[in-house]
Amino acid sequence: LTLFISLMKPKVKVSRASTDVCTKMVKCFGMLWDLKARMTENSGTFWKNGLHKPPGSIKRVGRGQGKVASQNLPKTLVMLKKPPWNHDKDYDQVKFDEFNSKMDDVWLDDSNSADLEFSIDPSEVVGTGISKLNLHPSLSGREAHSPSRPTLLPRQKARSSETQVPRNIYTPPPHPPSTAALNSPSSTTSVDNAMRHVAVPRLSSTSREEKHVAKFTALLAEECPDLDNLRKIAWFGCPKEHRPDVWQMLSGYLPPNKSRRVETLQRKRSEYWRFVKQYFKTRTDANFSGLYHQIHIDIPRTNPTVKLFQHEKVQSAFERILYVWAYRNPGSGYVQGINDLVTPFYVVFLARYVDDEVETTNVDNISDEILSNTEADTYWCLSKLLDNLHDNYTFAQPGIQMKVHDLRRLVQRMDGTLDKHLEVNMIEYLQFSFRWMNNLLMRELPLRCTIRLWDTYMCEPNGFSHFHLYVCAKFLTKWSKVIKSLTDFQAVMIFLQSLPTTKWTDDDIAELVSEAFQLKCLFPKAVTHVAGTT
Known about the structure:
mainly alpha
């Protein structure tokens, strides 16, 4: 602009290049002035005239229609040439209609909206859905939906032929839809009804169990299985055929190394029977007659509803196991409730040799060698368990007293209204939870559920003591709603002493231990977190 003004002054000499630039600037000002005048005259109809389609419109493009036809606009509407740093070529002039074609998606004018109306045929949508269903492997070899299938373009046909879905991923639908049902005009949700039959990829319970068993089989087949990996998979439950070996290894009774197992079992079993020969004869002595008498009267009370435990051979085995253990552990001795802890080990180890249900099997058909080996294995695993619960069975049972106290502190933080309800009805935690700690919930759960619970206990650090506290807390709060509906001492105590768990399955135990594990993560140290004031 300064250069242009200097040219207007008289007697000013400038170069030829400056003159050319000024000439171009004059032409540019003329173009802009002409454009301003045109838009001022047609400001209301510039985008609405017949020469220009509104921005955002849908244009049909056919063969040879890749470019918009030129509009007869004034020649003065010419944009500037390309940047001045390239002077080798003369550049084509770009007209305004090309600029318009690039900017036609800015907005849409209502006056031309009628030209843009379009609709979707519902039959085409249904037909497309049916064609996709016909490609599904679960419908291969079954009734085809060709009558209503739309004609595919060549590109679509090629794509459909190339699409191959693995047949082993999806489960076939139990009742595939028929052609008439999918094409019925009376149905307003034909597509939804059709897609409802598409199977969701999932593993059946049988497949999950097979994979779970395969993990145990592969791990136990190793020369020396990794106990940490064994605990990880056994936490979710052990298969029946592998449970004896898993329990014995996780208890510390059976060595993981395969080459040492046979020799260890022979040695430990022989050692147990030496104990029996040495100690069991003292049961008639005056100093030990009271101990034997207590064991003798408790054995028939051990799960009286289970046929296996009422057999004379089994009861005699339990007497020897408990008497030998009490004789060799005079610091605690025998306490009522320990007799219940024998039963899960005995059932699990005997199941190795029995094909049918162990609880109802005929003991007379089992050889004496199998019964003696089962008895010895049960003794050693019971000893390993009680070594970690020694405080529960010493004088005054201080271990149980502390766990009952911790249980109340934990419930106060989990469900304060439940704790208040028990207090209002004058119910002490010791009155119902003492048995939970002493018998490890064996009186509250069926035997099959106790065995599943012990699968997880075996895998948890201090599972029978520390983790059991959180299981009891979740077990109590599980019945919170029912307990709060009972308004007197007698009703609450009767309910707590006969909880409705007879129909529980492994799934219920899995849910219980999962919730207890979450609680354990919230309270990683029970002594620290439950000992504070509320």
